[in-house]
Amino acid sequence: MADNGARSGDGKDGGRPHYTGHRQRLRQRVLDAGGQALQDYEILEVLLFAAHPRGDVKPLAKRLLQRFGSLAAVLAADPGDLAGVKGMGDAAAATLKVTQEAAERAGRERAQQRTVLSDWEKVLRYCRVAMAEDKVEQVRVLFLNRKNQLIADEQLARGTVDHTPASPREIIKRALALEASAIILVHNHPSGDPTPSKADVEMTREIADAGKKLSVNVHDHVIITRTGHASFKRKGLL
């Protein structure tokens, strides 16, 4: 005789999927308490709702975290790598990539509204969002005015897993074009080790020497990793 009630493990309750109402409950939690009320996989669920208008996206959210290791790593992942996760399509990948871009732009705008050196932790957080999960090295330069306010943040070089061909001449040339009086160099180490290499130290000194001749001060060079950072200034290398 058929059982008219819920069946164990069938994911249904009286013919209704177990996730019925789940989306609205998640949205309401965001509206009531903000995004901080959600776990990482729940944030991914909300982001994926638009790309997956029906069905349960919780398994996909958890697969993404399992594959990449963290929310930040999911958002920073290449579209090709995202496509390798079961359930991911172009719409979902585009949603995640535009979310990462929105976070970067918001961080940049907040930095531009403040004196960079007086709000260093916010600058570091912004740099981690922009660079920490990148699989290859990149060099970004924060260009500052005389009040140490951010004029521009630009990626001026991109390299391989362990090397970035940054040109001191081009960096100082760009600073002069922007009428910047100071710069902060930032680059990432995909290896996870923030220790400056010999090449990092030599490049930084070349840029600092070139800048000094043209009244462009190098305030610091920061190496960003997934787990921390290293400051040349604090290490006595500048």
Structure, explained:
This protein has a five-stranded mixed beta sheet with strand order 4-3-5-6-7, with helices on both faces. The chain has a two-stranded antiparallel ribbon with strand order 1-2. It contains nine helices and seven strands. The chain has helices at residues 22-33, 40-49, 58-68, 71-76, 79-82, 90-112, 120-131, 168-177, 198-213; strands at 12-13, 16-17, 138-144, 150-158, 182-188, 217-224, 229-231. The radius of gyration is 23 Å and the shape is elongated. It has two domains: 18-104; 120-231, 3-Layer(aba) Sandwich (Cytidine Deaminase, domain 2), CATH 3.40.140.10. By secondary structure, it is α+β, with helices and mostly antiparallel strands. Strand 6 and strand 7 form a beta hairpin. The model is unreliable at 1-12 (pLDDT under 50). This is DNA repair protein RadC. Belongs to the UPF0758 family. InterPro entries: MPN, RadC_JAB, RuvA_2-like, UPF0758, UPF0758_CS, UPF0758_N.
Q: Which term fits the overall shape?
A: elongated
Average pLDDT for all residues: 84
Number of strands: 7
- Classified by CATH, the class of the largest domain is Alpha Beta
Distance between the termini: 81 Å
Number of helices: 9
Known CATH architecture of the largest domain: 3-Layer(aba) Sandwich
**How would you sum up the major sheet?**
5 strands, mixed
Domain MPN: 116-238
GO biological process, one term: proteolysis
Region (Disordered): 1-22
GO molecular function, one term: metal ion binding
